[in-house]
Structures are given as C-alpha cells and as structure tokens.
Amino acid sequence: GVARAEDAPAATPDFTITGSAALVSQYRFRGLTQSDNKPAVQGAITLSHKSGFYLAAWGSSGTNQYPQFNNGTEIDLYGGYTHALGGSGLTFDGGVYGYVYPNAPANNVVEVYASLTKAYGPVSAKVGLNWAPNQHYFKTYATPTRYNVYEYAELTFSPPSASAYTLHGHIGHTGGGFDYGRDYVDYAVGGSYKWKALTFDLSLVGTNLSHSALNKGFVCAGAAACINANYRLGKAVPVASLTASF
Hints:
- This protein is mostly beta strands.
- About 5% of the residues lie in helices and about 55% in strands.
- It has helices spanning about 135-140, 210-215, 225-230; strands spanning about 15-25, 30, 30-35, 40-50, 55-65, 70-85, 90-100, 110-120, 125-130, 150-155, 165-175, 185-195, 200-205, 235-245.
- The strands form 2 sheets. Strands 1-4-5-6-7-8-9-10-11-12-13-14 form a 12-stranded antiparallel barrel. It has a two-stranded antiparallel ribbon with strand order 2-3.
- It starts with 14 loop residues before the first strand and ends with a strand.
C-alpha cells in the first residue's frame, strides 16, 4: 500500500497551553491555612514549549492568613525548565517562583525551586527544595533569619487496574524566615479520583506545630475564641477539592 499524508503521526506543537479551575474547601499552603479555614476559588494556566521551558500563573481567592494578612488575593507567577535526565529515569524541574499579593505588596516573595521525580512502576517519588534568598519581606518583618529553606518529599501511587484513582503523601520542612517561631513540619495524605476532565481530591493536611506555638506572637487579650482561631491555622483538617483541567 501507499502511505497517505493523513496516516502520518501529528507533529508535536512547539507550544502547548494547559489550565485548570478549582474549588477547595480551604486553601492550605505548607500545612497552614491561607483562607481562614474558609473555601477558596483557584485557577491556573501554563504555557509550555516542547524544549521543556514553561511559564505559568496561578491564583487564589481568600488569602487573608499566615504568613501575614494578605488582604484577599494571591497571584503566583513562575517559570522554569523540566527535562528527563538521560536514561536515569529522573526528571528535573527547576525555576523561579513569585508570590504576589496585589493588596499587600510588602508580603511579595520570590523563591528559587528545584525537584527530581522518578517513577517505579505505579509509584512515583519526588524530592524538592524551595529557597527564598534575602529580600524585602524579611527586612520588612525583621525576621531573625533573612532567608528561608523548604524541603519536601512526595509519593504517589496509581493502581494499574484502577488508574483513575491515585493515593498520595507529602511531607515538608520549613526553616528560616517563614517558620512559625520555630522550624516546623507539614504533611498531607489523601486520595483522588479522576473522571474525564474532573478530579476530586480528599486529603488530611496539618503540621506538627503545638497549640502554644500557633498562638505565639498573637495578641488575643485572653479571648478563648481568638486562641482557638489561631490554633486552627495549622491543626490537622480534611481538605476537599474539585478541579477541572483543560
């Protein structure tokens, strides 16, 4: 037979645009609530080049909590490069990440990030590091440490016989200018189910911060309600999300 042009595989496009929109029961960042334990709406868009370079934006409503009161909206802008490292099975991802708070510019922060991911059959393992160098935020709030380091590790498992389901776990460590008066550990463990373009996730998210540590630095005038509200910043809670991808 004679091969026809329409039988040839489609060429890989130079650029790809992907995105998502999500509704979450609350916005947690490194184990700590950013939305005062209230629901939030989030969205993301990514422009990727086939070489591995990408630019992206992510946003969330309701960011009125730790590390400082952010007055409503968070917009994250970041860009980087991802690529498989030869035949090692490792995938590198690294770049620069900016956290932007339009209503509280003093809280804006820039981090440099890098991670390695490797798949072992249905299991995927990832380790990464985010480093925030000395910048305006640390000087504004006179933090004892003028930088921050965040290390983390993640595992995901997708059963071959039920690929729509995924189990995942995360553990991270914050040390430096973003800590809570002391280094702390955050964790998340949960599962997700994907149906077409929709993903439903339910996770338990929390930190190892004690009741007294979470209240340190807050003036509550002895009000029990305020003390309890502060403790809720980092205590373990279930977090549900529904995400639509396109």
